[in-house]
Amino acid sequence: MKTVKKIAIVAGGFSSEYSISIKSGRIVEENLKSSFDTYFIVIKDNEWVYEVGDRKYYVDKNDFSLSINGNKIAFDSVFIAIHGTPGEDGKLQGYFDMIGIKYTSSSLLPSAISFNKGVCNDYLKSHGIQVANSVQLFMGIAYSEEEILKKLGLPCFVKPNQSGSSYGVSKVTSPTELKPAILEAFKHDKQVLIESFLDGREVTCGVHNFDGTLTTMPITEIISENDFFDFAAKYEGKSREITPADLSPDVALKVQETAKKVFQLLGFNGVARVDFIVQNGIPFVIEPNTVPGLSAQSIIPQQATAMGYDLPDFFTRWVNHSLK
Fold it and tell me: Can you tell me the distance from the alpha carbon of 105 to that of 90, in angstroms, rounded to the nearest whole number?
């Protein structure tokens, strides 16, 4: 009889994206439980725990195992559903590499580079990828508001350099708004990225490399009811998401080819999503995501469905890819 693989689904994390991660993890669990023996493990502070009813079983961090009723549970792979630290910045990946456990996401270095928006933009720009002009600030180091505005102009976007889900992101339209926006972003990270405004259509494109074949997913256009795609637009229904996006064939091809190039340049694995602003027919990369949202409101499940996948099959293929 074929042995059913044991898969840990890790969710939670140490960032403001904790609640979104839990939602993503539950969607993953729901779609994997028919194919695998799944264990939903929540990482929060120093507590890594698997709960069944009112019982808690704590992960042995020496080898990422569980002991349940005297039986040791070791995992064949880990589905990383943690947005932000430690699941999207490479920390968990380094830990799993050291103890020899497979996982579904990109490895340590691609995760760390892509999570640092400033470093990632500089790297992509050096390889000919179009990105917004930007200024990076560091906590405790003086900066000149005048020089920032001179370089980037108005409006501009101020965001934490290493964060997701649009927490701490502000659109600045007047000089008096710049300092408060910077202070708000510094509440979420010790580094802040300020980017020039790109006037265009916001789109995003998933990419996967299941079975070693690099494949782009249908493009989604995001039309926010708010001034930009902020947290409310992403997770509280304040946006329309159109999949597939109504783009001309040549623009759609540019977006998909750029998304694939970003995936390759950064050495991604599994599934990633690349966000763009298309300005005058040219796709500018806003940011890549190595652990994209997977909740009911998220874009990758929408794109997978538009490709013709049912979600259990899509997530099963994702895990099987990690097991190879």
Answer: 9
